[in-house]
Design goal:
Number of strands: 39
Largest sheet: 8 strands, mixed
Number of helices: 10
Radius of gyration: 24 Å
Shape: globular
Distance between the termini: 72 Å
Structural class: alpha+beta
Strand content: 25-35%
């Protein structure tokens, strides 16, 4: 691994002598100038639209954000107070992240050309001029956003080495915002080497090695996490990630901060004000870690396990003697940790600064001055926002006053603090489109004028449904959670046709946010139950780990147990049950249809894995590295993965199935849907596939999203017959 001497301004000296001849794992990015759009608005704008991912300029008077008013998520900017928002990048490429530079001169963002899995990092001036690709312009490469240096003169970006099989895919390389990779023990050999030389299984959380540890109950008191062994994660395919500091003005060459071969997760979250240290997040799902790097020597001075979820895991204090981290190390639920550093960046003491009982810290945001922190807590899927005072540079005390505003909607998805006080927050709720709200210094919320009004969430005549939380027990006693949506106008005493909808991840969580898909299904007279089966986040680390190894068989049974629960409550009709899901939820859909063939009358599998062997052979190398941590190694655990693959039991399929896939998906290649549909047809089962053009693993274009949800609703309506009997 190369290391170079870096300063906050992005300049570099020669690498250390021992590393001088070592090639970087991914090439330095080459900026490419792009045509300016001069803030020209697109001709057609949607009334019912979403706005999210705010980032304010230094004065807090203007906000850059993502908006889909033109039918695709694009980069927009608008005044903090007023409604004169305008698009800054008119290309039809979906935008996923936004960051305004601390000096106010540039807005950085990540986009996906063609809607596929390839991503690149661009910058543009606030007036719409000077647009250029900073990283990811090379064929087959991919890049995503890191932090700005504190003075705004350089931007950290992560670039991925093009995979050897890039030409085999319809899209280029993929590096999602929360991508995963193979970790190496801090201070031990070169990154990646620890995995290739590991002997025997690794164990999550340092617990015991029982193959079938008792399943944890999220309703039980906090306890040590489950000790289920994790399959050995040797190298699956080649590939590498590297983080560079890039000067948007072109005055300095890119500076390599950190590189790692065989990795899939790498993000520079912060640099100290003097540029001496960098805070890096790396590692696979369930094994994330924060590294403090000495940028002059490239030495890792401190490492600590941090939580999954949002990749922005922490910040340095103004004097770089404290790191504030969102971490669940040695605990079930993520909390705010305070790490005291010595002058060399080594950890001196780690303590819990703020924690909540049975609630995880979802989001952490700290302004540059470091006098307070904004914390978003996950309380059974909803958000409680909190502002806490932080000790000054020369103080060692705990946090100061804590303030909790009342929010107009259930979930906070992004926080953008202001140096003067207050913040911008992206809010989502069960009955509104995502929007951006400003909270003043008194934390009183006010909706931005360019965010859609609540009453514009859906066309008139079909109001959104507020879900109710449900808890049920799996057959082995594990408590599961979820949200039930009742179709409007349905007699509460009459069992209804019901669709079990399964989220992706599997570490995602079902949250009470507005879903146009659910709204479409409800409008067809179909109820929806959206559960958190084992493996989901929000219920503690033990619950997330409960599906590892052969625990995935229990996750498949969880789907059936959730269906049985809503039937037992009298909500759902036992002979009119459907199942659908996306990504991992698509896998669970196919698995549920073949493991419980007489339970469901129809299924819709979206971007799901049908065979782990073909999935590992076809996905990107960094996705494969990540997947071994969750599912098993394609060689060492071949028999387990074969047994868990829906294709191994496709002879049991009875229910008609619709498969939906994006044509440029290189996360889960479209062949995963194709082979399942083909096998179903060969066995006389009704099956169809819908391929969405110019889409990857996520469906981001309004026309394609509309096509998808209508096709899914048509399929389920046809087979579940929501018309009540006379």
């Amino acid at each position: 691994m190369d290391h170079v001497i870096a300063t906050a301004g992005g300049s570099a000296a020669a690498p250390a002598a021992a590393d001088r001849d070592a090639p970087p794992p991914a090439p330095a990015p080459v900026p490419v100038r792009m045509p300016d759009h001069l803030s020209a608005d697109p001709p057609t704008l949607l009334t019912a639209h979403g706005c999210w991912y705010p980032s304010a300029n230094p004065t807090g008077e203007h906000v850059a954000f993502i908006c889909d008013r033109s039918g695709v998520p694009q980069l927009w900017s608008g005044p903090a107070r007023g409604d004169g928002a305008h698009v800054l990048d008119g290309d039809p490429d979906p935008v996923t992240e936004v960051s305004w530079s601390p000096d106010g001169r540039w807005i950085a963002y990540t986009s996906a050309p063609g809607g596929g899995e390839h991503t690149r990092v661009l910058v543009v001036r606030p007036d719409g001029t000077g647009r250029q690709v900073l990283a990811g312009a090379e064929p087959g490469s991919s890049a995503h956003l890191g932090c700005w240096t504190r003075d705004g003169t350089a931007l950290a970006v992560t670039v991925a080495q093009p995979s050897a099989s890039a030409s085999e895919h319809t899209g280029a390389g993929h590096l999602p915002a929360d991508a995963d990779g193979a970790p190496a023990a801090p201070g031990a050999k070169a990154p990646g080497a620890a995995w290739s030389e590991r002997g025997g299984p690794a164990t999550l959380l340092g617990a015991g090695a029982a193959n079938r540890a008792p399943a944890p109950d999220p309703a039980a008191p906090v306890q040590a996490a489950a000790g289920r062994p994790v399959p050995d994660i040797g190298p699956v395919r080649s590939g590498g990630l590297a983080a560079y500091l890039v000067d948007p003005d072109g005055g300095n060459a890119p500076v390599l901060l950190y590189g790692e071969e065989g990795a899939a997760s790498l993000r520079v979250c912060d640099t100290s004000p003097d540029g001496r240290f960098a805070l890096v997040r790396r590692g696979p799902r369930g094994r994330r870690e924060a590294l403090v790097l000495d940028t002059a020597s490239g030495r890792t001075t401190f490492a600590l396990h941090v939580a999954d979820g949002d990749p922005w895991i922490g910040r340095f204090s103004a004097d770089a003697r404290t790191v504030w981290l969102r971490s669940d190390t040695d605990r079930e639920f993520a909390a705010l940790l305070k790490v005291r550093l010595d002058e060399e960046g080594a950890g001196r003491a780690v303590s819990v600064a703020v924690e909540r009982d049975r609630s995880a810290l979802d989001l952490l945001s700290v302004p540059d001055h470091g006098r307070w922190a904004l914390l978003a807590w996950n309380v059974h899927g909803a958000t409680e926002l909190e502002s806490v005072g932080l000790p000054l540079a020369d103080e060692d005390g705990g946090v100061g006053p804590r303030h909790r505003p009342v929010l107009p909607h259930e979930v906070v998805t992004r926080i953008a603090p202001l140096e003067r006080g207050g913040l911008f927050a992206a809010l989502a709720g069960s009955r509104r489109r995502p929007g951006i709200w400003e909270l003043d210094q008194g934390l009183v919320p006010a909706r931005a004028g360019w965010s859609a009004r609540d009453e514009d969430a859906v066309p008139p005549g079909r109001p959104p449904v507020r879900p109710v939380p449900l808890r049920c027990r799996a057959r082995d006693g594990l408590t599961l959670g979820g949200w039930y949506y009742r179709a409007p106008g349905r007699d509460p005493g009459r069992p209804a046709p019901c669709v079990i909808h399964l989220h992706g991840g599997p570490e995602e969580q079902e949250r009470p946010v507005f879903s146009p898909l659910y709204h479409e299904l409800l409008g067809r007279g179909l109820d929806v139950f959206a559960p958190d089966v084992r493996g989901s986040s929000g219920w503690g680390r033990s619950f997330v780990d409960a599906d590892l190894g052969d625990g995935r068989f229990a996750a498949i049974d969880d789907v059936a147990d959730c269906a049985a629960h809503v039937v037992a409550l009298g909500y759902a009709d036992p002979v009119r049950l459907g199942v659908m899901g996306r990504s991992y939820g698509g896998y669970l859909t196919m698995a549920s249809l073949v493991w419980h063939p007489d339970l469901f009358r129809a299924g819709v599998a979206v971007c799901g894995m049908s065979d782990f062997a073909t999935f590992f052979a076809g996905t990107e190398p960094w996705i494969a590295q990540s997947a071994t941590a969750k599912y098993g190694h394609p060689e060492h655990d071949r028999e387990l993965l074969r047994a868990l693959s829906p294709m191994s039991r496709v002879d049991q399929l009875r229910a008609p199935v619709l498969a939906v896939h994006g044509e440029h998906d290189t996360n889960v290649p479209p062949t995963e849907s194709e082979q399942f549909v083909r096998a179903a047809r060969e066995r006389g089962v009704s099956a169809r596939q819908l391929t969405l053009r110019n889409e990857g693993h996520e469906f981001l274009r309004a026309d394609n999203r509309r096509l998808y949800r209508r096709a899914a609703a048509d399929w389920l309506e046809r087979h579940l017959d929501p018309t009540p009997p006379p």
